[in-house]
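[job 0412] stage=fold_complex status=start
inputs:
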Amino acid sequence: EVQLLESGGGLVQPGGSLRLSCAASGFTFSSYAMNWVRQAPGKGLEWVSAISGGGGSTYYADSVKGRFTISRDNSKNTLYLQMNSLRAGDTAVYYCAKDYSSWFKAPDNWGQGTLVTVSS
Amino acid sequence: QSALTQPPSASGSPGQSVTISCTGTSSDVGRYNFVSWYQQHPGKAPELMIYEISKRPSGVPDRFFGSKSGNTASLTVSGLQAEDEADYYCSSYAVSNNLVFGGGTKLTVL
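[job 0412] stage=fold_complex status=done
writing structure:
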C-alpha cells in the first residue's frame, strides 16, 4: 500500500523559509516522479513542483519559480520542498503526491497534507 | 499557465447521470492525452478517478467515465450514489512542463 507522510508545515512570517518533507513507502520510490500540490483554504488545487524519478529533472509553477526548490533522496525514500521568501499567498495545505509515471505526467497517490501558514 | 475551466457546481438525483466539463486550450487539454480527474471529499486528500482521459485506476467503479473532444475533457458519473457527492477537479499536462488544474466542480447528489 502506498503511503505518503508529509511533515514540516507550520506558521512562518512573510519572507521566511520552511522545508517540507514527505516520507514514502509501499512502492519503489526511485521509479516514480513526485509532485507537490497545494490547496489554499477553501480554494482549488494548484500544482507547485515535480521531480523525475532519478531526481535529474525538476519542474516548477511560475508562481514559485526561483523561491521553491524540490529535491529527493532516493536512499531515504524522501521528497523535500525548500520554500524561501514565503508570501501570504503561499498559505495552503501542501500535498505530496506520487506520479503514476517515472516521468512527470500526473499524481495518482496523495498524502494527507501539511498546512503552511504565512502570517505576521 | 491559466487554470482549466470547470463549472462551479453540478447536481443530479440518485441513479441519474451527470457530466462535468473541463475546458482548456491547445496548449494543454487539446495537445496532450494526459488528462486526469480527481475526487475530493471535505477535509480529505484528492483521489485519482481517471487518468489519460479515460483510464480508471483499479478500485474505481466503472460508473466513472472520462472522454475528450478537442480542448474539452468530460467526466460522466452514471448511477449517482450519495457517496459521489464531492468536489471534482480535472488536470492536464501542459506545454513547458506544467500541470494545470481546473477550478473544481462541487457535485451535489439531490
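[job 0412] summary: The CA atoms of residues 48 and 62 of chain A lie 9 Å apart.
[job 0412] exit 0
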